[in-house]
Design goal:
Layout lengths: L1 H33 L27 H22 L18 H11 L4 H10 L5 H14 L4 H13 L3 H12 L6 H13 L3 H14 L5 H34 L10 H4 L11 E2 L5 E2 L7 E3 L4 E3 L10
Antiparallel strand pairs: 1-2, 3-4
Helix pairs in contact: 2-3, 3-5, 4-5, 4-6, 5-6, 6-7, 7-8, 8-9, 9-10
Length: about 325
């Protein structure tokens, strides 16, 4: 009888805490759905509660709360992109969206769960377009908490690569290559950074490895990397198409009236990794997401159809 009473004494508080957190999440969702519209300046109000303060007091539910903050970070950036009135959004520079709460969300998630690799990964991919120093800070925090996770060294090298600091990128690829289980890719990239850090081939190799190493459940990272690989394919296509446009104009004294006219010049040309050019049902050239390239006959040039392409802008 005493043992049952002791067991109840231990279980009851945990049940109450779990029910309390569930109620908080349900209530916050209800408030989010039903809150009145606010002026633009109030959209990003500071976090009303710092979840990091729950560390050590959540009765083992820190991981669940960390998941909540990580999911909020994904939704937060997604909402910013959807609600933006900008015609053109440069994913390499998102400062115009003012997503200033992304870092607090990710910091809270990783404070509660220091081993939350997916949160560090998302920060390494997105934060450089907002605040590179915060991206470095978050990834260094991940390395400090997970010193044997070679992928975090890869992410930090990626951030420095994005910043154009190829020496630092090489340093962290090299450091990560010495961790047990790290693939030979890390050593190869350390060398590549010092010889061709800014090349498209290096970028493609980096993204391919990030895709191969991504957690299958980390769909946001997988989608982001896949889109960046398609953007590199589009760069290859456009480079070759522009050369064909110049050749046609030189030989015919005019620009093409549509991209179908240069298809004979593109036959037999193989893009990197053996890829081919793509055409739609009318025979016009399209980008890797099947949006037609727009022809500028005045300048005899092509460009992405920003209204229809799914490529990163």
């Amino acid at each position: 009888m005493r043992s049952n009473r002791s067991l109840s004494t231990l279980i009851l508080p945990a049940v109450i805490v779990a029910a309390g957190f569930a109620a908080i999440f349900l209530l916050s969702g209800f408030i989010e759905r039903n809150r009145p519209g606010l002026p633009e300046g109030y959209v990003d109000s500071d976090l009303a509660f710092n979840g990091s303060n729950l560390k050590g007091y959540a009765c083992g539910f820190e991981g669940l709360i960390a998941d909540f903050y990580w999911m909020r970070s994904l939704q937060y950036v997604g909402d910013k992109l959807v609600k933006s009135s900008d015609e053109f959004i440069n994913i390499d520079n998102l400062t115009n969206l003012n997503p200033r709460l992304l870092y607090p969300y990710l910091k809270t998630a990783t404070d509660l769960d220091p081993g939350f690799i997916m949160a560090y990964t998302y920060g390494a991919l997105v934060l450089p377009a907002i605040d590179p120093q915060k991206a470095i800070e978050l990834t260094n925090k991940g390395i400090a908490n997970n010193p044997t996770a070679w992928r975090l060294y890869q992410h930090l090298a990626y951030i420095y690569w994005r910043m154009g600091n190829y020496d630092k990128a090489a340093e962290y690829y090299e450091r990560g290559s010495h961790i047990e289980g790290a693939p030979s890719f890390m050593k190869i990239m350390a060398a590549a950074m010092t010889t061709q850090g800014g090349s498209r081939e290096t970028a493609r190799a980096m993204y391919r490895q990030m895709l191969a190493d991504a957690d299958p459940g980390d769909v946001q990272t997988i989608h982001t990397v896949e889109m960046r690989l398609l953007a590199l394919d589009a760069m290859d296509q456009q480079e070759t198409i522009r050369a064909a446009l110049a050749d046609f104009k030189k030989n015919n004294g005019r620009c093409v009236s549509n991209t179908k006219e240069i298809l004979p010049l593109l036959q037999g040309i193989r893009l990197p990794e053996g890829k081919d050019f793509r055409v739609d049902g009318t025979g016009n050239l399209v980008d890797p997401t099947d949006a037609p390239y727009l022809l500028d006959t005045g300048n005899c040039n092509i460009k992405l159809d920003l209204a229809n392409t799914k490529l990163p802008k």
